[in-house]
Design goal:
about 35% helix; globular
Length: about 375
């Protein structure tokens, strides 16, 4: 049953399943592998590059998928010999942890056998989703659609995982890093007064800017590490969702927007966004201007292999700035992006990791999975190089 079906078809699918589970056969059915992928801002429709999920589905037939089953198949490392030596030295392997398990378990709960107590709730949810899709599906973006339905939760990393990735970076003292003489000299070169120096170095206020934050579920994983969190989003519905979670949220794609303020940020995150914005190079130049000199860090994630497209209303368009990548595999695209895109712009790689990028599923499939690369960069704010 597709998401465009009427409420009656949802009811029929729900009632007629032979073993009483909600769409269990559909949950394990591989969708068309050539459909576009909507990432952080929407449900993940499978593509031909989602080899991991394809393998899971083909191997499991219609069996009930468990957390342990997926744990053994999630990929957190790279193929030996496929990364350049300098990238192998920067690779930081993460692992399946309790927060990841909790998210997967919540998604898989949709596969549980039918219970009369949850029937009315599930039925109303299906009917409501169907009506919304029928009424506005052709007019608004997937981002706003998921905001209205409050669905499509994303999981990129746990709080423990992002903390470990940032732990050896030259960030303020909350990360356990001592202030160096070079930091102090740099502050003096930038014309900081003694009071500003003491506030900045001795009593740091850790600030995060999460660009394209979606509904804020990923932001919640980073928030405990900071004293102040600011989010940007282009979808007014998602701005509302962020506000409901307690975040300062600004409806803009411009990092120089006056409502963001003129203070530097200790960390700027841009998660699964560069391949979904029209001008990724311009966005990175704005990141450089907002990141705190010397100690600031840029956290970026991208689904690889790279596939750029831009959501405009209910349609998809090609970006104005196309990133040139070589090869077809996760490792080849990683090599290419660092050498041809990030490095020429002055982004210096400190760490890179591989994680499964997870999205809450729907009535056909409980969980969507893609391969993410997570980068930690220091930034040369004086770089004027072009790519």
């Amino acid at each position: 049953v597709s998401t465009q079906s009427t409420g009656f078809l949802f009811v029929y699918s729900f009632l007629m399943h032979p073993d009483g589970r909600v769409n269990c056969d559909c949950l394990l059915e591989l969708r068309s592998r050539e459909r576009r992928t909507v990432r952080r801002s929407g449900s993940l429709a499978l593509t031909n590059r989602a080899a991991l999920l394809s393998q899971i589905i083909e191997n499991s037939a219609s069996d009930h998928i468990t957390v342990e089953f997926l744990r053994e198949r999630f990929v957190y490392t790279y193929k030996p010999g496929k990364l350049r030596e300098e990238l192998e030295a920067k690779f930081y392997e993460l692992h399946f942890d309790d927060e990841t398990s909790s998210f997967v378990s919540s998604c898989l709960s949709s596969q549980q056998p039918f219970q009369a107590s949850s029937f009315a709730r599930d039925l109303c949810s299906y009917l409501w989703s169907s009506v919304v899709y029928l009424c506005v599906g052709g007019f608004i973006s997937k981002t706003s659609m998921n905001g209205v339905l409050n669905r499509g939760r994303m999981f990129v990393f746990s709080t423990a995982q992002i903390s470990s990735l940032l732990s050896s970076s030259s960030l303020p003292s909350k990360y356990g890093i001592e202030v160096t003489i070079e930091d102090a000299l740099r502050e003096e070169e930038l014309g900081r007064s003694k009071v500003e120096f003491e506030e900045r170095i001795l009593k740091p206020k850790r600030r995060l800017l999460d660009v394209g934050a979606g509904d804020g579920n990923v932001t919640l994983k980073m928030a405990p590490l900071f004293d102040e969190v600011v989010c940007t989003e282009v979808s007014p519905v998602m701005v509302y969702r962020l506000w409901m979670k307690g975040f300062k949220s600004i409806e803009t794609a411009d990092l120089l927007h006056k409502d963001i303020g003129d203070e530097y940020f200790d960390v700027i995150s841009c998660l699964n966004l560069l391949d979904r914005c029209s001008q990724p190079i311009e966005l990175l130049r704005q990141v450089q201007s907002r990141l705190r000199p010397v100690t600031g860090r840029f956290v970026c994630s991208l689904v690889l292999p790279l596939d750029q497209s831009v959501e405009k209303g209910a349609k998809w368009e090609d970006p104005k700035e196309k990133l040139s990548v070589e090869g077809k595999s996760w490792e080849e695209h990683l090599n290419s992006l660092v050498s041809n895109f990030f490095s020429p712009l002055g982004f210096n790689l400190e760490k890179v990791s591989r994680v499964p990028y997870l999205c809450e599923g729907d009535s056909r499939q409980p969980l969507f999975i893609l391969d993410d690369a997570i980068f930690i960069f220091s930034v040369d704010t004086n770089s004027s190089r072009n790519i």
